[in-house]
Write a structure and sequence with these properties.
135 residues, alpha+beta, 6-stranded antiparallel sheet, 6 strands
């Protein structure tokens, strides 16, 4: 995720955490960070940059299993996925550029990222355990 000091000090930054409950002992959550920018005369706010990650608590530490974002610096706004643990389902690269021609705005990319993690979190979790040879 982006540097916390840089992220939280920005006046238009927001963060939302959705816990994912299951009958298992492991804690999982979706962390959504985004920054808005006023557009037009009416002051409507549009999402400018975002980061949506699936996190799991492993031995007291939160680990990003998968994270979709469009942010690393102000000049780079390319939608991509971080695959820190090299989950086999995403290939063996740690950063994957996403090619979603219908998802051109940051808001639609963020909605897609949230849906992807909500719909596939159990699959990502299984792939993580398999890649770390935990199961």
């Amino acid at each position: 995720m982006p540097n916390p000091e840089e992220w939280y000090n920005h006046p238009d930054a927001s963060e939302i955490i959705y816990p994912l409950f299951e009958t298992e002992l492991t804690e999982k959550r979706i962390r959504i960070r985004f920054r808005t920018k006023s557009v037009g005369k009416k002051g409507k706010k549009d999402i400018q940059i975002f980061s949506v990650g699936l996190e799991m608590n492993i031995k007291g530490n939160w680990a990003d299993l998968v994270r979709h974002c469009n942010h690393h610096s102000e000049s780079t706004e390319q939608f991509h996925t971080h695959n820190k643990y090299k989950l086999p389902c995403l290939g063996n690269k740690t950063k994957i550029t996403m090619k979603l021609p219908k998802k051109k705005t940051p808001a639609s990319q963020m909605r897609w990222a949230i849906k992807d993690i909500k719909n596939n979190y159990s699959f990502y979790r299984k792939e993580f355990f398999r890649s770390q040879q935990i199961i």
